[in-house]
Specification:
Layout lengths: L22 H5 L2 H14 L5 E5 L5 H7 L4 E6 L2 H12 L7 E5 L13 E4 L11 H16 L5 E3 L2 E9 L4 E2 L2 E2 L4 E3 L14 E7 L7 E9 L4 E17 L4 E6 L2 E12 L4 E9 L4 H7 L1 E6 L15
Parallel strand pairs: 1-2, 1-4, 2-3, 4-5
Antiparallel strand pairs: 6-10, 6-12, 7-8, 9-14, 11-15, 12-13, 12-14, 15-16
């Protein structure tokens, strides 16, 4: 992976080495915490064994310890190892979690486990090592324990991209910078085309590390196309008896386009990008290209928008 900050070791970049004060934001993010807690409660068997890769403060391992007999929580950062041990000692059931200071890329549990939790996730699978870690884990686990893999949380991740108009004006100051924003209905006036799914990652199967997209997208609403939104929806667990999934739809990553353009309903825009999982946002951004490949005459009404979620 290219390091765009050559004077900073890769492991010290945010996304590879997250400091303790950043975890406050994750602990208070209920859109993340609640679905993970539900998925863990649904997936972990009574008296089961669980492994968490990249445990951070240990909160997801603690959720697992409510039902599991043994949880191994792997964390590389020494400061987080100390913090997690302290936090778990103050929470009931924390004694069932063993904090292991190790690199998740090389660690294996001492025996087979029922569930593996890995939340090294970033929208678009950039910056963090979710895919590399789980790809390495699956290979090494099967070599040691046989072909049967544990259940993974998340089970599946879906990556999508959408053409939008974004207001890059901040207090009267225009600055086309990457933006993180919750997806949802508040974005409807910004959507110019339907979301396009470019990858679905099943963690129990071959895990991709490269993403290449070349998509012809139809404009559904006329406007000024100046950005693309990357969307990542994680299916943490499936509740087959209720025909539903426990989902975590992450904040969207909005990247400005190098050449904005005015579009009308029916135009076709060719969108291209290519990147490697775990790369920097800058590397993804530099690869994005969009251009109108066919024009349409103005229509009297817009196509209905679909839900981006």
């Amino acid at each position: 992976m290219t390091n765009h900050f050559t004077d900073v070791p890769e492991e010290m970049l945010l996304g590879q080495y997250i400091p303790i004060h950043y975890h406050f934001n994750m602990l208070r993010d209920q859109s993340r915490m609640l679905p993970f807690r539900e998925a863990i409660e649904l997936s972990v068997p009574e008296d089961g064994k669980v492994l968490e890769l990249g445990g951070g403060t240990g909160v997801l391992s603690w959720f697992a310890a409510r039902k599991a007999r043994q949880v191994w929580c792997v964390e590389r950062n020494p400061a987080l190892v100390r913090a997690a041990r302290s936090f778990l000692s103050k929470n009931p059931g924390g004694d069932r979690v063993t904090i292991v200071q190790a690199d998740a890329m090389t660690y294996l549990p001492p025996e087979p486990v029922d569930v593996v939790i890995c939340e090294m996730l970033h929208v678009g699978m950039v910056r963090e090592k979710q895919l590399e870690v789980l790809r390495s884990f699956c290979r090494r686990y099967q070599d040691r324990f046989g072909p049967r893999l544990p259940q993974f949380i998340p089970d599946t991740s879906t990556l999508a991209v959408q053409l939008i108009h974004q207001d890059f004006c901040f207090g009267g100051y225009t600055a086309e910078v990457p933006v993180f924003d919750p997806p949802g209905p508040h974005m409807q006036d910004c959507w110019l085309a339907d979301p396009h799914t470019y990858s679905t990652i099943d963690y129990s199967r071959e895990i991709p590390l490269e993403f290449l997209a070349k998509a012809s997208l139809t404009i559904r609403r006329s406007g000024h196309l100046n950005a693309v939104s990357f969307l990542t929806n994680n299916f943490l667990a499936f509740v087959l008896s209720e025909r539903r999934a426990v989902q975590w739809l992450m904040n969207q990553l909005i990247l400005p386009l190098p050449r904005p353009m005015d579009v009308i309903v029916g135009d076709t825009v060719m969108l291209e990008f290519a990147y490697t999982s775990g790369c920097s946002i800058e590397a993804l951004h530099e690869s994005v290209q969009a251009e109108i490949c066919s024009h349409s005459l103005p229509l009297t009404s817009n196509y209905p928008l679909r839900d981006a979620a």
